[in-house]
Write a structure and sequence with these properties.
This protein is α/β, with parallel strands linked by helices. The protein folds into three domains: about 55 residues, Alpha-Beta Plaits (2-Layer Sandwich), CATH 3.30.70.2580; about 70 residues, GMP Synthetase, Chain A, domain 3; about 170 residues, 3-Layer(aba) Sandwich (Rossmann fold). It contains eight helices and 17 strands. The strands form four sheets. It has a seven-stranded mixed beta sheet with strand order 13-12-11-14-15-17-16. Strands 2-3-1-4 form a four-stranded antiparallel beta sheet. Strands 5-6-7-8 form a four-stranded mixed beta sheet. Helix 3 crosses helix 4. The relative contact order is 0.08.
Length: about 325
């Protein structure tokens, strides 16, 4: 039997909210309609209200923190990536022997189909080295973001779900009839968000990875993003035949700075390059522009945003750079 208060249905939500605010609402049982009234479970008798005892349906509380299921909470990563219905977690080397238990804990608490252990990004194509530690099926999945559906496979194409806010930030800057180039597009998340939420004229999505091109073309069809042109190849070569852009996106933090002169050659005077790069936290970001300034480019650093920590002393930043000549 559960202690509860009887209230008219018309007042139930108001009284429930007040009981919650006062710390008197019981969250272990469900509210129960009873004729013209509702029975609300309480922890103790509220002031000026009589309590009754009834049998109410119990609420099963699901564990939401996977670390509580693995008995070594302090050592486990507090966060992990979820791409579609696939969870991707980095596990410290000294806990690798517990990878199956960690995978099962994530599987039970997060509601994904598959859990993969991430051993890092490898090679020129930035492919994650992944191992299945729980769940079933392959790693191909559909990721949803700001009204866009993106087919991807984190074992074949680099994809970072944590850049959702950055993708929308850049989309919010795009003006009608802009020409946009994404030099390292992956499955085209930046172009897809821009296509969905702006009036861009044309968006060129380039990637060296052949699998990325295949996913890009599928995503263009799925989202009816007909102003995106998917191109496979080295951006240095591909961009020679493209029209001048109003905006160039460079989401390749480990080496994008090596392509900055290519991007500046491809952008109109007054256009913007969004350069993703890794910087030590005590380094002046203006130094990133030293080499292109020596090559004769007049550029202005319009803004800088820290996207994520990369190491104890460095972070991934995005630099918004305007070409002035």
């Amino acid at each position: 039997m559960v202690k509860c208060v009887r209230v008219p249905r018309s007042d139930a939500e108001t009284i429930r909210s007040k009981l919650l605010a006062d710390g008197l609402l019981s969250r272990d049982h469900r509210l129960c309609p009873d004729g013209p009234d509702v029975l609300i479970p309480v922890l103790s008798e509220p002031e000026d209200m009589r309590t009754e005892e009834h049998e109410l349906e119990a609420i099963e509380h699901k564990e939401t923190d996977y670390r509580n299921l693995v008995n070594i909470k302090d050592k486990l990563p507090s966060s992990f990536d979820v791409v579609g219905d696939v969870a991707i977690v980095k596990i410290p080397e000294d806990l690798a022997h517990l990878k199956k238990a960690i995978g099962e804990a994530i599987f039970k608490t997060v509601g994904v189909r598959l859990v993969m252990m991430d051993s890092g990004v490898k090679g020129e194509l930035r492919i994650r080295e992944l191992e299945k530690i729980a769940g079933s099926g392959n790693t191909e999945t559909i990721h949803k973001e700001f009204g866009v559906r993106m087919l991807t496979d984190p074992s074949k194409v680099y994809f970072n779900p944590r850049l959702a806010t950055e993708r929308m930030r850049i989309a919010s800057l795009v003006k009608d009839n802009e020409t946009v180039i994404d030099m390292f597009a992956g499955v085209a998340p930046f172009p897809l968000i821009i296509s969905k939420h702006t009036g861009a004229k044309e968006i060129y999505a380039i990637d060296l990875n052949e699998d990325a091109e295949r996913f890009m073309k599928e995503n263009i069809k799925m989202n009816k993003a007909n102003n995106i042109i998917a191109l496979q190849g080295d951006a240095r070569t591909v961009m020679r035949d493209l029209p001048k852009a109003d905006r160039v996106i460079m989401n390749l933090p480990q080496s994008a700075v090596d392509f900055l002169d290519v991007a500046l050659n491809a952008v109109k005077v007054g256009g913007i390059v969004h350069l993703h790069t890794i910087l030590e936290k005590d380094v002046d970001p203006e130094t990133v522009l030293d080499d292109v300034r020596k090559k004769g480019f007049i550029v202005e650093l319009k803004g800088i945003n820290e996207l994520k920590t990369y190491s104890p002393s460095s972070s991934v930043y995005v630099l918004d750079i305007i070409r002035r000549n």
